[in-house]
Amino acid sequence: MEHNHRMELQYEGTGLHGWAKQKGLTTVEGCLEKALSTVLGSAPELRVAGRTDAGVHARRQVASLRLPAGIDLLRLRTSLNALTPPGIAVTRITRAPARFDAREDAYSRVYRYYLSTLPVLPPFWSRYCWYLPARVDEGALRAAAAAVVGRHDFTAFTPTETEHVYFRRSVSRCAWKRGATTVFAPAGAARGTAPINGRANLLYLEIEAEAFLRHMVRTLVGTMLEVAQGKRALEDIDRLLRGGSREEAGPTAPACGLFLWDVRYGRAGSGWRDRR
After folding, report:
1. Contact by Cβ (8 Å): 204, 141
2. Pick from 154, 211, 196, 147: which is nearest to 176 by CA?
3. Are 214 and 160 contacting, i.e. CB atoms less than 8 angstroms apart?
4. DSSP three-state, residue 274
5. Cα separation of 80 and 119, whole Å?
6. Rounded to an integer, what distance in angstroms lies between the CA atom of residue 247 and that of residue 245?
7. What is the mean pLDDT of each run of 10 residues along the chain (276 residues)?
8. Mind listing the pLDDT tens digit for each residue in 216-238?
9. Which pTM does this prediction carry?
10. Could you give the domains of the chain?
């Protein structure tokens, strides 16, 4: 007999080729499946909240999977963390309602994108932010972010070659912030325990939406930075959100600054309600 379970994990995306398994490449899903096969004899299907791209980090990722009844979950977590690379950490495995699906039941995902404009970048941050030592107009950045809130057509902010066929998304929050922040330690550090404290001159974009298109956050960041550097008008954001082409938007920001920060559950009938 098997029961449904919920797994939470973190990973440092440097050197990982994203979530989805790919032959010959190191991915989060591939590493977990290999570890699960070693422990259980076969790998259960993993339903994940967000399929992150190569180089993208996750502070809180959620997956659902079916496990044998009576399995020792603490021992399983320990085994998985011993069998996966140090950049991947399973933080919690709990029994879930039978109908819980980590992907379908998530009502929103939260991403953060970190940016450093310091004259000299501290080496501890090199894997976790876009280093852009230039003056930016923070007022323009915030205005560009505010324009993204609402339901829009994000065709201009995802690659032309894509599996997506529907490009409208609802963004509930989008804002640039400056201040003390925390990003988790690099691969090889104690799993999930050692933070790196940010400084007041570190910028980050926090954006929450029901779902995201591939490269959507990173292309929004690249386009907003062009506004903040005077390379395009603020009005361009509004025009692009009405269904512009990818060629009209700005560059795709580097993956190293992007974190899947949180996944939110709790709507009626979802089979899971967060208690945090």
Report:
1. no
2. 147
3. no
4. coil
5. 41
6. 5
7. 96 96 95 98 96 96 96 97 96 96 96 91 88 91 97 94 82 87 42 42 90 96 97 96 94 97 76 52
8. 999 999 999 999 999 999 999 99
9. 0.89
10. 2-105 (3.30.70.580), 108-263 (3.30.70.660)
What is d(CA 203, CA 136) in angstroms, rounded to the nearest whole number? 11
d(CA 11, CA 85): 9
**Predicted confidence (pLDDT) per residue in 95-117, tens digit:** 999 999 999 999 999 999 999 98
* Residues across the chain: 276
Q: Of 53, 101, 137, 153, which residue is the catalytic one?
A: 53
Do the Cβ atoms of 143 and 234 come closer than 8 Å?
Answer: yes
Which residue is it, tokens 């993993």? Answer: 46
Query: Which residue has tokens 């030592």?
Result: 133
Asked if 236 is an active-site residue, the reply is no
CA–CA separation, 229 vs 224, rounded Å? 9
Collapsed DSSP state (helix, strand, coil) of residue 186: coil
| All residues at 6 or more sequence positions from 193 whose CB lies less than 8 Å from its CB, including other chains | 185
**Token digits for 189?**
């550090």
